[in-house]
User: Fold this.
Amino acid sequence: MLLYIHVPFCRAKCRYCAFYSRPGCDDAAMGAWARAIDADLRAWGEALRGEAELAPGFLADGTDGTYGRHGVFSSGRGPLRPRVTSVFFGGGTPSLLSPALLGRLLDRASREFTFADGIEISMEANPESMTPEKAAGFRAAGVSRVSLGVQALDDSLLAAVGRVHSRADALRAYEGLRRAGFDSVGLDFIWGLPGESLASWRAQLEEAATLRPDHVSCYGLTLEEGTPLFAERDSLDLPGEDVQAAMYAGCGELLEQHGYRQYEISNYALPGHECRHNLGYWLGEDYLGLGPSAVSSMRGLRWSQPADLAEWLAAPRGQRPGPELCEELSFREQAEELVMLRLRTARGLPLEEYRRFTGRDFAADNAALIAGLCAEGLARMESGPEGPRFALTRPGMLISNAVIEQCFESIPNAPASA
Ligand code: SF4
Assistant:
């Protein structure tokens, strides 16, 4: 199981951001949030050990010491601490927390859940709040992996999207993280910012690659409804479609020349530094999300916490929210998710996994589509130890949503064997 903790605080709101977070650093609100997370960890730990009926109707699905319909172990044979392979502090801005507070929450989590050997403990960080002292403190608290939200190495681009840090802040924070000795340090970028040229993007990436981060994420800017940038969309100086395609393709080529391997649409890593937490999402692992707006998913049941701090604080701890925030995915929705998530990865969709879930032969059901995509260089068939796989190429990844939609058409409404 993966454990995600959402830290809903930011120093200021970036102009493109649609994540739930509150601007401004309010110590009282942060204290209340931390107490509620601590209580959630206790309550979910207890509930998932099968020792209390804190989530009525959820635990009742299990029967005889096996995973129940929703994947929650609910044996009556004594305590079983769900095994956690990854903890991820995301946000918001987790680096606004003090290392001591983050350490206390990690300690609580380790007492409530079984931490797997070699567990990955990640946090997102923003340059303006990651001082060398805090970097050392987070490392000492047990964090192994940090994703630094650089977004751009150009002050005018950063200002255009309302980031509160500068290029110098980003370089200083990176240096502090390196000195602190984390196992993995990643740099996160956004391409296609207002006013950004292809040459500027390439220069920033070149500079990033020479810093030798272990991991690089490069997301294309999306204009999310409700954000200031969305409201100004008609007057923004955004790169055209051709330039954006060149930004995406060039990014992969440049990073590969520097030894990085693309393992997902927007993610690149030096060998052995892939983010195991995010890979877990894409490979369909169960996850428990705590904090306002956090999403959880266990064997076909999906729920999200209220995306409002006050509402989330007022909710009972350690329980799934009501039906308005909880859904049971149909067989077809689960099959679509399997296809969509696997095709995000460079490894692609193992056809045997698809067959086990749906009872169908993906290659036969999509023969014409696959042949067409392969002929256009948008996809490829590969073979690996687990048999054939269908994967998107980099040009295919650029239009992944359209390709994945086409793959959905052959998915049955029920497993073939039903
Ligand atoms: S720092 Fe991150 S979470 Fe906070 S407003 Fe900016 S993009 Fe959103």
Remarks:
- The pocket of iron/sulfur cluster is lined by residues 10, 13-14, 17, 19, 21, 91-93, 126, 149 (CB under 6 Å).
- The longest strand covers residues 114-125.
